[in-house]
Amino acid sequence: MNEARILVVDDEEKMRHVIQLYLSKEGYAIETAANGREALEKVDEGKYDLILLDVMMPEIDGWTVCRKIRQESTIPIILLTARGEEYEKIFGFDLGADDYLTKPFSLKEMAVRVRAVLKRYLEPNGKQQKDIKAGALQIKAMYKQVLLESQEVLLTPKEYELLYFLARSPQIVYSREQLLNHVWGYDFIGDARTVDTHIKQLREKLGEYKKYIQTVWGTGYKFKVGYENEKHTE
């Protein structure tokens, strides 16, 4: 896993250098970008396994970079910001970010989060996962691909994991805490509203089939089939 390529995007040269030095010692291949424009160019030109993306940058900020990347790619993204307000974190998750680090952060915590994200996305677990078909929905586990009526639905890595986890056990109700533990991992530092944000995003992308994911009030969420012909909303 330490062969992973990571792009570090921050307009502060010292911050880029410190992160690059620390993660290089951890065995990762690190490249850097000094601004959003350079980051987008590098993402277009190369393949990365993870992006550490500063939010507050001149010209093109991290929010915009994250949104543009998500239009084309599911590369895991960890946002870096000096501001840790809750609404900013929720906004970042809405854009498709996978995790969040508030400056100043410890390099050890950064390394733990990087390792956790990469573990979820790089370990070859496709052989243990089976394809899922539920009405119009198909999940091809080996390729981490989701199809609705044979049309691909572009999900972020976290959205995919959440959908797959629910869909593999239809009718089973999971609490938000259980979903956090199973999908985000026990070392995730966050709250249950992270789950709600990703469920909302999933439903938006599923469109008329959003009722596959049902809310069980006071408990959590479950995956339920049989709504292929329902067009109305909850």
TrEMBL record:
Keywords: DNA-binding, Phosphoprotein, Transcription, Transcription regulation, Two-component regulatory system. Residues 5-118 form the Response regulatory domain. Residues 129-225 form the OmpR/PhoB-type domain. It comes from the Bacteria. The modification 4-aspartylphosphate is found at D54. SUPFAM superfamilies: C-terminal effector domain of the bipartite response regulators (SSF46894), CheY-like (SSF52172). May play the central regulatory role in sporulation. It may be an element of the effector pathway responsible for the activation of sporulation genes in response to nutritional stress. Spo0A may act in concert with spo0H (a sigma factor) to control the expression of some genes that are critical to the sporulation process. This is Stage 0 sporulation protein A homolog.
